[in-house]
Design a protein that fits this description.
The complex is a heterodimer of chains A (244) and B (417).
Chain A (H helix, E strand, L loop, with lengths): L2 E7 L5 H10 L7 E5 L10 H13 L6 H9 L3 E5 L2 H4 L3 H10 L4 E3 L3 H4 L1 H13 L3 E3 L1 E2 L5 H8 L6 E4 L12 H11 L5 E4 L5 H9 L4 E4 L1 H8 L3 H16 L1
Parallel strand pairs in A: 1-2, 1-9, 2-3, 3-4, 4-5, 6-7, 7-8, 8-9
Chain B lengths: L12 E3 L21 H8 L2 H7 L5 E3 L2 H9 L6 E3 L1 H7 L4 E6 L10 H13 L4 E6 L3 H12 L4 E6 H6 L1 H9 L2 E6 L5 H9 L7 H15 L1 E3 L6 H21 L5 E5 L4 H7 L10 E7 L9 E6 L8 E6 L21 H8 L4 E5 L1 H15 L5 H16 L6 E6 L15
Parallel strand pairs in B: 4-14, 5-6, 5-8, 6-7, 9-10, 9-14, 10-13
Antiparallel strand pairs in B: 1-2, 3-4, 11-12
Helix pairs in contact in B: 2-11, 3-5, 4-14, 5-6, 6-8, 9-10, 11-12, 14-15
Classes of the chains: A alpha/beta (244), B alpha/beta (417).
Chain lengths: 244, 417
């Protein structure tokens, strides 16, 4: 079964709407959930997700989401945190403890190998030692040796961003992109994200060996419009595309 | 001399250094929170250029039509052993120079102008636009646009426009329309003129004007340097030089080039990086624009108006107004992200030279080799002279990229040639 990974920024667009959507997520149709912990400087995100961080920062309450984390965990949905290292670095171990206490399975850190490359190995070692998954985040700009080197440090799935940032539409060669990552990491579980919009994109990615997709910008727009029906239809449709 | 006598010297592919960098290249960052300046690139660059900017392909096929135009404008350019200079310096090693001044427009700039105009023509746009400092890029843009029958609107930094009137003549001859920047053609230019009527202009202002013009007129913006795609196109220089050295049975111990935005330097040196780990590589800048020693390695704006995305690079600040040095091409406040990363990681060293050192280097080079190099290239030659002095007995093979000729920049010599 291919992985469908919806993304939500905590606190966006407001806690009431967010929780309303979290309540209706069909847990039988998704595999993992990615929660963005609001960042002061989400620099590798596009304008839509940047805005969700800005608003999420104002609304975030760490006492509010625990029942949902617990619910998803009980239903077998693995949860991953999307956090910027620049935000969590000063209290890194404390933050990992916080996530583990809430049954998160791992963490995606988009700026770790870009801005803190010299600290990446120690950080990944720490996560491995604590039984917490580090999800390598790569993009087309990641050099070959970094992709293979970082991937060797963990057994987890890989998050591959197809665009320079979320919700951006820069032309790219899908087939060549998947061919490259497959040849560098043969047999590895690759989930694609950043700028995926169409069903055809998803079909091509899966046909080329992708193990799943993460959807963020598109869903956040539905939350902003409070479009619950559209959200459910979209999840249903994406599930169908992935299973086709 | 090894030049066009060997048809195999010209590469069939451009080389992109991104997959071979020691660390990931930081992605471009939106400069404003309310809209995506990265997405804006879709409107101002030809689609194929944008694809090449963000590609991770190590090699990109050069279209046959572009290869043919490369041949027409004088590629491959010669690699010449500077025996007279070696003798003059009493140097025990070898000095070679790759001479990009031998192209039709007299500099390396045409190497990326041709493919950019080619892809713009293929998209059926109204025309192309760009900024220019010393005028070398403007000349290349005007010629490339003319070859593909596209109108070209060129914003020339005002101080260079005044110092180098012949450049304007050249651009006009190639059917380019040239105005001093800041200009009255754009809202941004008018605003700068109102606030700073005596400004000498900067490349950052010129870029901002060209971007605005492209958006308003369905033109495409031609990328002179800084962005990776320009360095990739310029890799024809380094790939040719590698091949020429190979045919001569030589190995480059030291590579030296000058840096404005980094395109001639990256194009010359990057193809050597994957399989020449011991080759020393030195980037020279103007002492008056000390981006590597006094600049910060940080995200900064490429253009003054902040329309383009921010890039992580060595920068003196997008509002930096450099002194009015003759090497207009070196006045840019930043340097290409890939070059900046390689400098930051210590793979590439940097040097700075003064105008006096440059003038002296140009004189020596002209007197020994007969080539009157561009003031920008004079910086690389000056660093090479310093290097030879400091390594007199090392018997190294030094290769310098002379990125252009200086026949339209003679005022650097004042009244005493």
């Amino acid at each position: 079964m291919k992985n469908l990974i919806p993304y939500f920024t905590l606190g966006y667009p407001d806690n009431e709407t967010l929780m309303k959507f979290l309540k209706v997520i069909p847990v039988n149709k998704i595999n993992y959930l990615e929660f963005g912990f609001p960042s002061d400087n989400p620099r590798y995100d596009g304008p839509v997700i940047r805005e969700t961080h800005k608003i999420g920062n104002k609304n975030f309450r760490d006492d509010l989401y625990d029942e949902f984390f617990s619910y998803f965990h009980k239903n077998g949905i693995k949860m991953y945190s999307l956090s910027y290292y620049s935000d969590i670095k000063p209290r890194f171990s404390e933050f990992i403890d916080y996530l583990q206490a809430r049954n998160f399975s791992g963490i995606i850190i988009p700026d770790l190998i870009i801005d803190y490359y010299s600290e990446a190995k120690d950080t990944i070692d720490y996560l491995n030692k604590n039984g917490f998954e580090y999800i390598p985040f790569f993009s087309p700009a990641t050099p070959d040796k970094i992709i293979t080197g970082i991937s060797e440090l963990t057994d987890s799935w890989i998050y591959y961003g197809l665009q320079p940032s979320t919700g951006i539409d820069i032309p790219y060669e899908l087939d060549y992109t998947t061919e490259r990552i497959n040849s560098l990491l043969p047999g590895r579980e690759i989930t694609y994200g950043f700028g995926i919009k169409t069903e055809e994109d998803i079909k091509s990615l899966m046909r080329n060996g992708g193990s799943g997709v993460a959807i963020g910008t598109y869903l956040e727009k539905m939350l902003e419009k409070d479009d619950e029906n559209g959200f459910l239809e979209y999840i249903d449709k994406m599930r169908g595309v992935l299973d086709a | 001399m090894i030049s066009s006598i060997n048809k195999d010297i010209m590469p069939e592919n451009w080389y992109n250094v991104v997959p071979d960098l020691p660390e990931p290249l930081a992605p471009p960052k939106d400069s404003k929170s309310e809209f995506s300046s990265i997405n804006l690139l879709n409107k101002i660059l030809p689609r194929e250029i944008l694809k090449q900017e963000f590609t991770f392909r190590r090699y990109e096929k050069i279209p046959d039509e572009v290869i043919e135009q490369y041949k027409q404008i004088g590629r491959p350019t010669p690699l010449i052993r500077a025996k007279n200079l070696e003798k003059f310096l009493n140097y025990n090693g070898k000095i070679f120079y790759k001479y990009e001044g031998a192209t039709a427009t007299g500099s390396h700039k045409i190497n990326t102008a041709i493919p950019q105009a080619y892809y713009a023509r293929n998209e059926g746009v109204n025309g192309v636009t760009t900024e220019t400092g010393a005028g070398q890029w403007g000349s290349a843009t005007a010629l490339a646009a003319s070859l593909y029958k596209l109108p070209a609107q060129i914003f020339m930094v005002r101080i260079s426009f005044e110092q180098k009137p012949l450049r304007k003549t050249v651009m006009n001859l190639y059917n380019g329309n040239v105005v001093p920047s800041p200009s009255n053609l754009t809202e941004y230019g008018r605003r700068v003129l109102k606030e700073h009527p005596d400004t000498p202009g900067t490349l950052g202002i010129g870029i901002s004007e060209a971007i605005e013009y492209a958006l308003d007129h369905d033109y495409r913006y031609m990328v002179a340097s800084v962005m990776n795609v320009a360095l990739t196109h310029q890799s024809v220089i380094g790939q040719e030089a590698k091949k020429q050295l190979e045919l001569l049975g030589e190995h480059a111990d030291v590579l030296i080039g000058c840096v404005g935005g980094g395109s001639n330097f990256g194009g010359f040196t990057f193809p050597f990086i994957p399989d020449n780990p011991d080759t020393e590589i030195i980037a020279t800048t103007a002492d008056e624009v000390p981006k590597f020693s006094k600049g910060e390695y940080k995200y900064d704006l490429m253009d003054t108006a902040g329309v383009l995305p921010e890039m992580r690079m060595y920068s003196l600040g997008a509002d930096f107004v450099p002194p009015t040095i003759y090497a207009g091409g070196l006045r840019y406040h930043g340097a290409s992200p890939s070059l900046s990363l390689l400098i930051n990681k210590g793979r590439i060293k940097s040097d700075e030279v003064t105008q006096a050192e440059v003038t002296e280097a140009l004189r020596i080079f002209a007197n020994t080799q007969g080539i009157i190099a561009a003031p920008e290239s004079g910086h690389a030659i000056a660093t090479m002279l310093k290097y030879v002095k400091e390594h007199k007995n090392d018997k190294k093979t030094i290769v310098v990229n002379v990125s252009g000729h200086g026949l339209l920049d003679m005022s650097i010599f004042g009244d005493k040639p």
